[in-house]
Input
Amino acid sequence: MNDLNSEAGTILVLLERMRTQRLPRALDIKAKVDQGERLDSFDIQFLQEVFEDAKTLQPKWVQHPELNEIIGTIIHLYHEITTKALANEERGDLV
Output
């Protein structure tokens, strides 16, 4: 397999993981924080793993500007989750 095919295969695997694993879990967490709930340790661990992967994979995504819209949408989703989760934590500390 040449480098181009290998690169395309890697991107396809990463996008499939996003579609089947990461996105459904992120949407579940978003629904949770939108209802005013706080993150549990499993949610936090998941988000930490996602952020570490994003940091590691950033050079790969830079090489594929055709994925910018997808990546931007995902980043926005995680921003919404973390912002709402922080607000829930702060509100919880006041109760």
